[in-house]
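Sync notes, pocket subgroup
Present: LS, DG
LS reminded everyone that the earlier model was apo-only. Rerun requested with heme C included. Inputs:
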Amino acid sequence: MGVAASGLALLLAILMAMPTARGADAAALERGRYIYDAAGCQGCHGGPGGSAAGAAKAKLPSGGLGLDTPFGTFRAPNITPDPHYGIGSWSEAQFKAALRQGIGHDGEYLFPVFPFTAFSKLDDRDVADLYAYLMSLPAVALANKPHEAKPPFGWRPLLVFWRALFFAGVPLAKDPARGEDWNRGNYLVHAVAHCEECHTPRNFLGALIPSRAFSGNIDGPDKQNAPNITSDVKTGIGAWSLADIEQLLKTGMTPDMDIVGSGMKAVVQGTAKLSDADRHAIAVYIKSLAPIQVEAPPPKTAAAK
Ligand code: HEC
Ligand code: HEC
């Protein structure tokens, strides 16, 4: 065999490897988009609508939407790959530090209104896929808007205390005694879809109260009233079947033929895109929650619909 023949063999090998490499990338982007939808990134990081250009951009996470909380209004930043205004210059390691540890590009602490406390439980592949997906989006050159937090909640250095008290950053442990579905549901509920961010009440420093997990929060973001979703029959969803929960996550319809509104509407836009198996896993996990009876189930706010 001459040099030319081995060169040809090498060229053939490269050509044959190429479609596989591209195939793997496409799969990573597809998985990244799946996690992006399930995690509701767009719900917070969406951009302004209004003008025609703005409406087109609204599908991209160019930031600016305000999230009303008892601690002030927070505006999610631009996370499109614009090198100046977005995260285009971020390495995957920097992105991972933001999601997993709540540490920004310049080493600053990020406000926990960004649910990094949940995303800290995301596994390596999901974070890598999210990064690949975000970097594949068109860049939008739109400057971030400042938060309007109430003092002292807008002062980043104070977050060091908050983190010491409330942020452990431990990954989720698999429970081998429970089935595959329960473990997958546990991961989707806690690491990805962060259901507790709205359905668990918070203490006066804005941290979730673990003993009241999933028992509802009348003071949810954007003044939402997120109901008790533990298995308490009277004040929670103990009377719902697995199929009822799956139906809600797919269509937004409750067993009373009510369509959920406010923040849950955006959540359903994400869970509607999940596979049936993943919706089933979430339902299995939610059904397993121990009942917590809440004192006075707050009436649903019709205005929020
Ligand atoms: C509940 C609303 C909310 C959701 C959901 C959310 N974010 Fe954010 N995110 C924020 C806010 C608010 C900030 C700004 C935090 C700060 O200024 O400290 C932020 C900050 C970030 C940052 C740091 C950007 C920077 O310029 O410092 C990244 C990266 C990020 N989010 C990515 C994501 C991804 C990826 C998802 C989905 C997996 C997601 N976010 C879901 C609200 C949210
Ligand atoms: C952004 C805040 C938010 C997040 C995140 C969220 N929810 Fe909700 N959820 C709500 C609100 C608000 C309602 C009440 C909607 C209404 O009454 O129209 C609700 C309603 C529900 C209901 C109906 C309960 C009833 O009694 O009618 C279920 C079940 C539910 N959510 C499950 C979940 C699950 C499972 C997740 C995670 C996959 C989740 N939610 C994530 C805010 C949220």
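DG: The chain has a mean pLDDT of 89.
LS: The CA atoms of residues 20 and 26 lie 10 Å apart.
Action: DG to write up.
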